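Researcher: Go.
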Amino acid sequence: MKILVVEDEIKLADYLNKGLAEEGFTVDVAHNGIDGLHLASEMDYDLIVLDGMLPGIDGLAVLAALRQTKQTPVLMLTARGQVEDRVKGLQVGADDYLVKPFAFSELVARLHVLLRRSGPSVTQTAVEATTLRLSDLELDLIRRRATRAGQRLELTAKEFNLLSLLLRRQGEVLSRTELASQVWDMNFDSETNVVEVAVRRLRLKLDQPFEQHLLHTVRGMGYVLESRPA
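Model: Structure:
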């Protein structure tokens, strides 16, 4: 499932980005109304989390403009708790409303409700998105459980996130720089071998006990997760 988060508070936007990614969503982030409206209009999202107070164009104006062309489900976030503010947002076209501060678990629950309202096809896609597979490898994003050939893989949190990223983009070579940015939220430092160490440990658990290897090194380029013929 693909979600757009439009939020100008950097820390909150980063928190939502990481949290929703761990829930199995693919997340894009915009920090102002102009960029948010552009992404929402040009890209196809399953859901949009939209802050009411934004620089450039405020959330209500973004929503009003978006509703001229698209009916993507929108959950509005706002610091305004007054009834009239919530009513105005719903009248403009919001599908749900959540007042800051909020519990992340409530946000996720509301998003799943919106997905169910969107129709059977979207709901089915949401279910499928919670499980990733390649050959005899299966990753359950909700239970955060990895198995191969029916055997449980005991992964650390970082190893799970690394495998999740590789599995979502299976067949695509990912550089050390991208892995460092996506999994460790850090700029790549040539003196740091955190990626190599993590990949080596993951490979011991993922491939060593099995005849077919799935995690491959592409010399000078990075790593790829794919099923190759013997």
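Model: Residues 64 and 92 are 6 Å apart (CA to CA).
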